[in-house]
Amino acid sequence: MIERYFKLSELGTSLRTEFVAGLTTFVSMAYILFVNPSVLGAAGMDKGAVFTATGLIAAIATIFMGAVARYPFAIAPGLGVNAFFAYSVVIGMGVRWQTALAGVFVAGVIFWILTVLRIRETIINAIPADLKAAIAGGIGLFIAMIGLVDGGIISANKSTIIGWGDWSNPQVMLTIFGVLVSFALFARKIPGAIFIGIAITSVAGLLTDLIHAPSALVAGVPSLKPTFGQAIFGLQDVFTFQMVPVILTFLLVAFFDTAGSLVGIARSGGFLVNNELPRAGKALMADSIGMLGGALLGTSPTTAFVESSTGIAVGGRSGLTSVFTGIFFLLALFFSPLLVVVTSHVTAPALIVVGVLMAANLAAVNWEDFPIAASAFLTVIGMPLAYSISDGIAIGFIVYPFLMLVTGRGKKVHPIMYALAVIFIGFVYVLQTNH
C-alpha cells in the first residue's frame, strides 16, 4: 500500500532509502528545535512551550506535505521571521507577544485565502526580483548580527557605537569556537552541519564547565499551556494601524521564504516540470497549515526548509521522506531537557551560519542600476542598523517607487508597489511619533 501510494518504484527509490533521507533531513534542520525557543524566549515566551509548538507544527506540516502533496520537503518555523517577531515587533515596537501571535494568525488566514484563490503569485510578482533578493540578504545580515550580539562577539561601544565584545570571556570564546567548527563543517559540505556544530559546541561547553549538564536526557513533553490559543486572545489588539505593516511583513516574508525555498529545492531535486511545480497548490497548502497551526500552538511563521535538499541528495524522492522527517520531530519532543544545554552562546553560531547563507541572495541584485541598487542597499542596511526587518523593508519600498518616478520609469512600477509605499510611509510616521 505504501509502495503504491508514494510510487516508490516509479520514482526509483525504496522504503529504506526514504527512511535514511527522512532522518538526514531531520538531522539537518533539528537545530530549529533549540534555536527557535532561544529567539522567541527573548520576547518573553515560555521556552518549553515554544519547543513543543516548534516540534509539533513541524511534524504536522511536514507530514501533510509528504502525505498529501507527496514531496520530500520539510516545513518548520523559519529563522529570520522569528527574529522579526521577537526583536522587531515585541522588543522593538513594544507589542505583546500574544498580539504578535495574533498578527501571525491573521497573516496566516490571509496567506491561506490567497493560496486557495491562487492570487498570491500576483502579489509576489509585483515586487521586483532585486528587492526580493535584498530582503532575503538583509534578513541574513540581521540574523547574523543577532548571533554576533547574543554570542558576545560584538557589543555596544560608546566611542564607535558598536565594536568587538570581550573576547577574553570564556562564554564568548565558546561562541567563537562554535562559529569556526560550524564554518569548517559547512566548508567540508558535511550533511547536518548546523546541528552537528551545535552538538560539538554543547559538548565543549559541558567539558569546560561553561554549561551545566541536564538533569536528564529524556523527559515528558513540555506543556503547551503558556502559549496555546494565545493568538486568539490577542486578536482584540491586533486590528490597529501599527499592526498593519507587521501583518504585511509576516505575510511578505512567508511569501518569499516559501516561494524561494520551494522553487530552489524543487529545482535542485529535479521536481520542476516545464519550470513549474506539479501539485504546487497542495505544497503551498502545507505551509499555510503550518502558519495557521503554528500561531495557535504558539510559534512564529513556518517555511519550507532548504535543508530538505540534504535528504533529497541521499536519495529521497517521494513524500515518504517527509513523513519520516515529521515522525522524527514527534520523537524529538521527548528530549526537551537538552534546552538547558543549548544556550544562546551555543545557538549563536547557527544564526551566523544561516546569515552567511542568506547573504548569498545579494548576488542577484542589479547593482549597476542606481534606483534598484539604492533601494536594495537601504533595505539591506536598514535591517541590522534599525534592528528591525520591517524598518528595512519600509525604507526600500518607499525609496524604490520614488526613484523610479524621478527617473521617468514610474510606469514600470506595479500599482501594488505604490500601495505598499503608502502603507509603509504611514508605518514609519507612526513608528517615529511613538518614539
TrEMBL record:
<dbReference type="InterPro" id="IPR006043">
    <property type="entry name" value="NCS2"/>
</dbReference>
<feature type="transmembrane region" description="Helical">
    <location>
        <begin position="169"/>
        <end position="187"/>
    </location>
</feature>
<dbReference type="GO" id="GO:0005345">
    <property type="term" value="F:purine nucleobase transmembrane transporter activity"/>
</dbReference>
<keyword id="KW-0812">Transmembrane</keyword>
<keyword id="KW-1003">Cell membrane</keyword>
<protein>
    <submittedName>
        <fullName>PbuG_1 protein</fullName>
    </submittedName>
</protein>
<keyword id="KW-1133">Transmembrane helix</keyword>
<comment type="similarity">
    <text>Belongs to the nucleobase:cation symporter-2 (NCS2) (TC 2.A.40) family. Azg-like subfamily.</text>
</comment>
<feature type="transmembrane region" description="Helical">
    <location>
        <begin position="239"/>
        <end position="263"/>
    </location>
</feature>
<feature type="transmembrane region" description="Helical">
    <location>
        <begin position="318"/>
        <end position="341"/>
    </location>
</feature>
<feature type="transmembrane region" description="Helical">
    <location>
        <begin position="100"/>
        <end position="119"/>
    </location>
</feature>
<dbReference type="InterPro" id="IPR026033">
    <property type="entry name" value="Azg-like_bact_archaea"/>
</dbReference>
<feature type="transmembrane region" description="Helical">
    <location>
        <begin position="415"/>
        <end position="432"/>
    </location>
</feature>
<dbReference type="Pfam" id="PF00860">
    <property type="entry name" value="Xan_ur_permease"/>
</dbReference>
<feature type="transmembrane region" description="Helical">
    <location>
        <begin position="20"/>
        <end position="43"/>
    </location>
</feature>
<feature type="transmembrane region" description="Helical">
    <location>
        <begin position="373"/>
        <end position="403"/>
    </location>
</feature>
<feature type="transmembrane region" description="Helical">
    <location>
        <begin position="75"/>
        <end position="94"/>
    </location>
</feature>
<feature type="transmembrane region" description="Helical">
    <location>
        <begin position="194"/>
        <end position="219"/>
    </location>
</feature>
<keyword id="KW-0813">Transport</keyword>
<keyword id="KW-0472">Membrane</keyword>
<feature type="transmembrane region" description="Helical">
    <location>
        <begin position="131"/>
        <end position="149"/>
    </location>
</feature>
<feature type="transmembrane region" description="Helical">
    <location>
        <begin position="348"/>
        <end position="367"/>
    </location>
</feature>
<dbReference type="GO" id="GO:0005886">
    <property type="term" value="C:plasma membrane"/>
</dbReference>
<dbReference type="InterPro" id="IPR045018">
    <property type="entry name" value="Azg-like"/>
</dbReference>
<feature type="transmembrane region" description="Helical">
    <location>
        <begin position="49"/>
        <end position="68"/>
    </location>
</feature>
